[in-house]
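To the team - iron/sulfur cluster complex, inputs and output below.
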Amino acid sequence: MIDLPVVQTPQNGEQTAVDAEITTATGGRTLYVETYGCQMNLNDSEIVQSIMNKSGYAIVDGPDDADVILLNTCAIRDNAERRIHERLKHLRYYKKRKNDLVVGVLGCMAERLRTRLLENEKLVDLVIGPDEYRKTPELVDSAFSGEKGLAVKLSRVETYDDITPLRTEGISAWVSIMRGCDKFCTFCVVPWTRGRERSRSLDGIVTETRHLWDSGFREMTLLGQNVNSYRDEDKDADFSDLLAACAEAAPQMRIRYTTSHPYDMSDKLIETMAAYDNICKYIHLPVQSGSDRVLQLMNRKYTVEHYLERMQAIKKAMPHCALSTDIICGFPTETEEDHQMTMELMAQVRYDGAFMFKYSPRERTRAWKMGDDIPDDVKTRRLNEVIEQQQNISREINQAAIGTTERVLVEGPSKRNAAEWQGRTDSNKVVIFPHNEHSGYIVGDTIEVAVERSTSATLFGQIINS
Ligand code: SAH
Ligand code: SF4
Ligand code: F3S
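Output:
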């Protein structure tokens, strides 16, 4: 079952790009950050590591050697939070072994639960929300002298624009261009955990783009809960202008973005994507439901008709553009008929991929007050139906790729087999291909792969040049 929003794990291939000087202070204290949730959290963890590294903490990649363990958490669904409570139980073992270990909770769950976390999880020394990461060093210092810390104020201006995230591996970078969300979809906790929408400066992002290219990164993903709302008032620039500016700043860099909202997927954005070869032809456009009645209850602000019209505009401008979506099963009052409409919409669009979830009620949201009337077994059955249909569609789409040649950005060793490496197509599909010392390519190269075999999730092939 697909449960969390997509989290691409940082590539574990050769280390080709190091974005910032890392202090490896001997005798100094060490920090381990564990990240849950969406890509924005991954980027935030890099920001926290950068802040802590400047304060003299060496970054370690496991809890065993750490003096400070920070969990950067997600609150999007109940099971995301349950995972963190479980993880905190495990961390008791580390605390027993090391009396002065500092354990902190960052991110959306920290923002949502605040003092409740400190009260209910005795092990936790500090709780820091997404807009207060600059305070991490002083709060950790106080925690070492036995003081519990809480910093959960949301900000209308904080964007960490001046902080270079500490990226230590891989060739693919996450770049948050804005924070917060003002859309208030009725099921969603994000406006409460991340606060109001605010954007970084266009110049700051363009400078970061050049810097990333110069330090060896070959792909970047511009991140925001709703990137269409990006604005640089001083420059009178919108998201399309930013995308074009990044594409021009690093013409060989693969540029992706996520997430755009169907309500304001503009013609200008579609035209901009079509105009630049280095903007990947892949759009994640979450529809959530195929029923207008449910969409209205969700406060999504578009109809199925509008959504399909946008899809047509995308396909007209970019016939080979890959598409993916998010679906929620069992939103309050969802009938079998509503569910069938979702199935039909998905069959009609034929997404390359989808992230599918059971509805999970979140305190404070408007949907919380609508109750949770769809029984769990019905939600599960509907979820299984959408997953099964989507897997069949993805399998068929990937089968049609057999015999084609794909341009693949090499990421590194595949997770399953050391004799194979993996990379990604422009359309965000994972491709597996053979590797040995004579292969002649390295991480970050773009190679051509003839696709010979596929599953619903992956393409497999042979390299035809490098
Ligand atoms: N900003 C993005 C989505 C962020 S959350 C957007 O608007 O598309 C990622 C996905 O989690 C959402 O698209 C939605 O499908 C799912 N989600 C959010 N809240 C949820 C909830 N309460 N229960 C189940 N799924 C939820
Ligand atoms: Fe949540 Fe809606 Fe904002 Fe996405 S656009 S983060 S689903 S409120
Ligand atoms: Fe989760 Fe917060 Fe991201 S709730 S999905 S970590 S914005």
